[in-house]
Structure formats: C-alpha cells, structure tokens
User: Fold this.
Amino acid sequence: MRQLTATLVVLGLSIPLGQVPAQAEPDPPASGVVTVAPSAGAPEAPNPLQQWIDEHVPAPMKMVPRAARPLAAPGDLPPELTEFWKAVQSPPTGDPLFDAWPADLERYAPGEILDSRDVTDSARPTMLLLNLTGISRATLLKFRTTNSAGEPSIGTATLVLPPKEWTGPGPQPVLVNAPATNSLNKRCTPGYVLAHGMEVPTGNDFTPSPTTWALEHGYALIIPDHEGPLMAYSEPTVAGHNVLDSIRAVREFAPDRFGNSRFASTGYSGGAIASNAAAMLVSDYAPELLPYFAGASFGGLVNDYRRFAHTFDGSYISAFLLSTVLALGREHPEILGLMNHAAQWLATSPIKDNCSGSFGALGIAPIPVDIMAKVDKSLDSAAAESVFRQLSMQDRKSGVPLFIYHGVHDPWVPVSEAEELWRAQCELGVAATKNIVGGEHLAAYVSSYGATMDWLDQRLRGVPTSGNCAAPTGGR
Assistant:
C-alpha cells in the first residue's frame, strides 16, 4: 500500500502539465522492471531520503513509447540504461522528414542536404498568424549535422524568403533566427510548426520578432530547429552545430543565390544558447563559413550552467531546471544514471513531451534536484561536474563579432555574466559590443530590440565593427 501511495504521489505531479498524446511505435519495448545503474566508477552514495524513495517507489514497469531513432544508443551504456535512454526520448512525429535517420549517415558531410520539402502553403498562414508578415516561399531542409559526442546526426531548418525580390547591392543577406523553443517535444519545433501548423500550444519567437524584421528588410531567413533531433534543450554544442550546418545547407541548396551571401545569427534566452555557440564553434567546426558569417547577437544568455543549477535548485523555477536536466540527459546519458525511481516515472511520463507553454508548470512546488537523484549532493557529483565542463563555452573565442545584451535586473541570469563574457571576448581580441539595458529577463529583450536589429542590419550590409571594448562597465 505504501508503494502504491508513493507511486501515485509521483504520478500526480505530472497531471497539471500540458500533456500531448504520445504516438506509439509499431514495436513497443518489452515489459519489465527497468533499474538504472549509476554512472560507472562514481563513488557517490544515496542519502537516507533517496534510499527511502527507491525502496517505496517501484521502478516503471513499462516505458513507452520508444524513441524514433533507428540508430543505436551510445555504445558505452549498460543495457538497462539504454532502455531508459530510449524511453525518455520524444516520440515520433509521424513525419519521416523529422523521424527518419539514413542508415549511411556517416558518409554525408556536415551540412549536406538529406531531404527537402516546399512548405510554403502551410508556412504562409502560420507566419501571418504568428509574425504578421507575408512570405514568398518556405523550404524545409534536412541535413547531416554532428551531436555533442562528435557523432553524425540529423538537423532540420526552414529557409524562408521575403515577399519581395531582393533589389539591394550584392547577394541577398540571410538572418539566422534561433527562437527560444524551450521544448521537449519534436512537434513543438519551428520547422514542424511551419510544416504542419500549430498542433500543440507552443511559442517559438519573441515579440517584436527578428523574423518579421528580416522579411520586412528583404533579407532571407533561416529558422533552425537548434535543439536537435533528440530535443536536447540547452545543449550548446548541438545547438551551435545545427546553426552552422543550417547555413551550410542553405548555401548548398541555392549556391547561385546564397553561395556568397552574408549571414548573421541572433537569439534570446533559449535561442541565445544557439547563437552564442555558433559563434564560439565556427572557427573549429565550420572555418569555411568565416568569410560569410558576419556576426552573432544574443541576450539573456546562461553562460555558467553550474551557477544556474546551484542557484535555482529547489526554487520557484525548479521545474524548469528539472526539465532541462531531462533534456540534457538525452545527449548526456550519464545524467540518466543518477535518476532514482521517482525521476524515472516523471522522465517517462507526458512531461517529456512538454512544449514551451507548460515548461515550468511545476514551479509552484519547488523540488530539489536531490529528490530526483540516487546520489547525495548530485549537483556536485563527478557525473554532474563532467557534464558542466562539456556544456561550458566560457574558454572559447568567438570567430565573429558579437553583440551581447542583457537586462540589469534579470532575476534568472545576473548581468555580471554578460559583463564577464563581453570582457573575456574583448581580451581575446573579438570585436564585441555590450548593451546593458533596463528591465528584467523579458523586458530587456524589448528594451534592446532596436539596438540589436540595427547592429544586425549593419553586419548584414557589410559595415565593419570594432565593438565597444573600451566602453566603461554598464554602458553601451
């Protein structure tokens, strides 16, 4: 009876969340208790509460549906962790362009196109509804990219053309807008929404929108699905690779039109992760793009994952933090090995299909990470420390000019993180511009919008920049 009660309590936590009906695969996994082993070699042990949870909450008996990934799970995972890894993936969308992985993916170069589809008919009303703008054409591109472990992966992005032909000097410039998708469900990506319409409540952009601005200025637009095929929200390497490979794909798709175009990227909050990572990774991952990648702007960026996790553990945004942990576990399975039975129930529940509209629905019930872990002080564990190191972009140098903006009263990310990033990039010789504005996290986006778009406009038109590295702290 105590086991049943404890299980119902855990499952009850998922009821308030926006649920999305899952699509089962033809070959559901076999039933059986799934016991997840801790990370190999980890010396950490559970505390008494964690022991009580695993003794009184049984492991999930059946984890369905499985992932739509025909490739094998990471090869170094034990069988029981492999099953759990598959069970926490977002289920198939039903659209092969998003679901299918070529068997010979390794023979394709990063950015090489695997498939494409004209989605103008579905994207036109969606763009009009969400962005109040017209378009002439929208093409969904599927391409090869690279995951966080350096393995071949798939990526998708939508190339959108403005309603009027480009009449400016030189090749048509292209803005890469990385929206704050902040979702665990593949049907919440910009690409799926533009190809199929809004099937689930989701928000994929801020208002005023860089998408609207780009199309009104006659620029072409790339909207990447930067969380990758596993919907690994906040994984910077995945996001950066997807942005860079979307640029490669567009240049391959229309070489006469975009082969010599200037590209610039932008993103705020969740999207800032992608824009920043693209700038930090381009020199090593896609050096051939350096002559064409004119700059990256971003704001509200979490630059220190370790600080963020420790600051908000068990706070009013604990659900956001826990959802992020789940998303990262898809790309870094060692995280899954730290989850106890309660976490396994939640990770395989409809929570794993959340869209941005319900991403933080459990915030009213602050839940410390250790309640969901099987080792004491899990955020200080060897596995957590390893993941924090892999996620960090702090020691990298941007390959392109930067525009870094932030709200001075941001309650989530202290303005000092933006200051430190700007200062570090200046010391490395990057043409970095800092724009500290009034307001909290959302208001800061609006406060900086005009300056951000002006900076992007200059980069796309080829105006050189030296940044404002000599500016006093706190000013632009």
